[in-house]
Amino acid sequence: MPLIQFVNRVWFDAGATKRIGAELQRLGVKRPLVCTDRGIAAAGILDQVKEHWPEDLPWIVFDGTPPNPTEAAVKAALELYRSEGCDGIVAIGGGSPIDLGKAVNLLASHAEPLAQYETARKGQGKIGKVGPLIAVPTTAGTGTEVSVGTIIVTEDGRKSTIASPYLIPNAAICDPELTLKLPASLTAATGMDAVTHCIEAYLSPLYNPIADAIALDGLKRSIRDGALERAVADGSDINARSDMMMAALEGALAFTKGLGAVHSMSHAAGRIEKLKLHHGTLNAVLLPPVLRFNAPHVGTKLDDIAAAMGLKSGGDVAEAISALNRRLGIPASLGAMGVTADAVDEMVGYASDDVSTLTNPVKPSAEDYRALFGASLT
Amino acid sequence: MPLIQFVNRVWFDAGATKRIGAELQRLGVKRPLVCTDRGIAAAGILDQVKEHWPEDLPWIVFDGTPPNPTEAAVKAALELYRSEGCDGIVAIGGGSPIDLGKAVNLLASHAEPLAQYETARKGQGKIGKVGPLIAVPTTAGTGTEVSVGTIIVTEDGRKSTIASPYLIPNAAICDPELTLKLPASLTAATGMDAVTHCIEAYLSPLYNPIADAIALDGLKRSIRDGALERAVADGSDINARSDMMMAALEGALAFTKGLGAVHSMSHAAGRIEKLKLHHGTLNAVLLPPVLRFNAPHVGTKLDDIAAAMGLKSGGDVAEAISALNRRLGIPASLGAMGVTADAVDEMVGYASDDVSTLTNPVKPSAEDYRALFGASLT
């Protein structure tokens, strides 16, 4: 079975789920806490994993992860972790349960509250060794299974990025079979998350040709070769599912060089709890206006992206993404997602403070962010 | 300064040498052994590093690394390591001193002899945690600064590949300024080593699209964009030197999916001690015949390689490599390097047993290897 090891161990194959037992044994975990959400349980995916669960290990499940995980949910899971005497975590789901699992793992050995560890507050140095964690993605999008980061709505109301090499999962089990039941709308939204990672990482000004090569390969796979549209059209297409799972992995390996203003804005909108906005959908909607804003500051990089996407020479990447969004059934604006003009002021503040703003090709001013949010509302 | 972290910490920039002190401090090393060779010392490169050496650390140097490092040299360095009470290693040089440093580091905490750890003898499981090691490459070729492996002529006369995640250097300092004085002939030979890594890794049948993308980027950089020929033509071209150092890094990240018959044959020839053959030169000479041998077994992968090299559609990769070798002043055959027909029998045996044979697109038989060596002699 393919083992892909760059930042961590990644078992990547249809059926890879059966490796969970061996990985838990390798890590010496005797009482893992399963972190997941009710959607994963309802879709029968949790049962798919349970089929391969080692007989001698208890099945202790926290399924209360909200769509944008909160510190309150992290603490609820931590309480279960402690009362059950857990010694490790298996996080099963999209980005939310895996990010929640990473945060539970952090607080199992580090003091509360989470805000002190936020990257934007230079909290990385306070993070040391944590317990073992295995990530089992059930969407092809975030790539959090190979990344240093977790994104949590902390108790102070911020959507905080917390990152440290110690938070990288000890192993990722990437089994495209677990994504076969993902509905078309979520396939589209999470897929566009991966696409946005590839594009924003490639446009980050940091020098990292290795990450750049990985990012362009993710775009070829997902867009030029059509895996994203095929996976949306036919969820049971295992080859398309596998290619999208690889593109998600590639997006996250690429964004070791940072992301950009799409993510800053997406995090700012994602923290509006009553709307429960999907991170990938937000990225998809925000990508075209941010691409137009960044265009004068990226040299010939948009040509490279256009070529990787399979556009004709000189093709308009922003327009191609808008057209792709339409074909995928993604809303045309933040307004169509329920965001209203009165939220803009607060979103501008949060976006400006977001750590992804630092690696946008040019630093957007508050006025720039105001204009970008304004343009995205309708 | 760019920090590139996939398998390990890589400081990559002109002037990165000044990071050595901070890395030694981070690793808690108080008495490092510098492993290098006399060529590095004679070229003044050791002085370049010493300029940035932390004042409070001793300067303990083993400079007796032979061109193809032997277990005897490893033991001589280990004796110095022990008598000086060393607690870490800084390996400065081409592949030989870094590979020697890795082996010294292994034997500093593990029992002799080295042969028991050989990958081909399933020795990887015997390798556990080793002491801290920083790799400072002075050629752009082997990529051993980011790889799991070391290649040593063990006391039983084999050119043994010994590999373990524990042998990955804790940090690599990739400073293209240290390669500016490398003579054109060695620039060519080490550069062709990196090129061979990219090609053989791409042709390995293991599934790893991430490694594949990195491999093709290495070929674009070194061949299509001309960095290798520019570095050979003008050794002081820092951009070409930097791109070749990146291509070397990329080659080694790519060969996490394995190498092929070129390396099996090159290792078999490289162990003939009296000839002191250069590994990169051997790879360059052996690459065209092995490409022709593999061609029927690689699907359309040679077209991808041709495109990455900038050849016209349908271009002959083997012929293009031969032509490149000629322009670089690389010998046309093993015969021209001093290898004679009476060595073939023994080389066939060693090549067949080499671990790289396992990831060649098709497993060459002894007769295949005999024919390939025969064709390479003239």
Explain what the structure shows:
The structure is a homodimer of 378-residue chains. Chain A is of the alpha/beta class. Chain A has 2 domains: 176 residues, Rossmann fold (3-Layer(aba) Sandwich), CATH 3.40.50; 195 residues, Dehydroquinate synthase-like, alpha domain (Up-down Bundle), CATH 1.20.1090.10. Chain A is built from 15 helices and 9 strands. Chain A has a 7-stranded mixed β-sheet with strand order 1-2-9-6-5-3-4, with helices on both faces. In chain A, strands 7-8 form a two-stranded antiparallel sheet. In chain A, strand 7 and strand 8 form a beta hairpin. In chain A, helix 6 packs antiparallel against helix 7 and helix 10 packs antiparallel against helix 11. The termini of chain A are far apart. The model of chain A has no long low-confidence stretch (mean pLDDT 95).
Give the key terms.
Rossmann fold, 378 residues, alpha/beta, homodimer, 7-stranded mixed beta sheet, Dehydroquinate synthase-like, alpha domain, two-stranded antiparallel ribbon, 46% helix
Give the oligomeric state.
homodimer
| Biggest β-sheet: strands ordered side by side in the sheet of chain A | 1-2-9-6-5-3-4
State the domain count of chain A. Answer: 2
Q: Radius of gyration of chain A, rounded?
A: 19 Å
DSSP helix count of chain A? 15
Low-confidence stretches of chain A: none
Largest sheet of chain A: 7 strands, mixed
Distance between the termini of chain A: 47 Å
The counted number of beta strands of chain A is 9
CATH superfamily of the largest domain in chain A: Dehydroquinate synthase-like - alpha domain
Structural class of chain A: alpha/beta
Named CATH topology of the largest domain in chain A: Dehydroquinate synthase-like, alpha domain
Per CATH, which architecture of the largest domain in chain A? Answer: Up-down Bundle
